[in-house]
Design a protein that fits this description.
Blueprint (H helix, E strand, L loop, with lengths): L6 E5 L20 E4 L2 H7 L12 E4 L2 H4 L4 E5 L6 H9 L21
Parallel strand pairs: 1-4
Antiparallel strand pairs: 2-3
């Protein structure tokens, strides 16, 4: 029995974040509490009646932990995420685009 996650299902934010690992997150980060960027707070405001009700922090699985998964599926919805997807798949691996770390993983279908 393995302690690894079999399948990691992720969405990508318009700024290239995955799992609330905002730009600037360490690519070796572990599960932790993070402060959300104003862009992420605004994007999530659609789930709340008032912007004041949107959480400003979250608990996230770190990028280092995500990369230990056996298989990673990344989903993106909407044209507003096209640049983030392109940067994460075709750009350099960097903390500015957290999803770019997925280039380091051997099992991200479609990559």
């Amino acid at each position: 029995m393995s302690d690894r996650i079999d399948i990691q299902v992720l969405g990508i934010g318009g700024n290239g974040h995955i799992g609330f690992n905002e730009p600037g997150s360490s690519l070796a980060s572990r599960t932790r509490q993070v402060k959300l960027t104003p862009e992420t707070i605004k994007d999530n405001s659609r789930f709340f009646e008032k912007i004041e009700d949107v959480p400003t922090s979250a608990i996230t699985m770190g990028i280092g932990t995500i990369l230990e998964s056996q298989c990673i599926l990344l989903f993106a919805n909407g044209a507003n995420k096209a640049d983030a997807v392109a940067a994460s798949l075709e750009g350099p691996i960097c903390a500015k685009v957290p999803a770019s770390a997925l280039q380091l993983h051997p099992n991200v279908p479609g990559q």
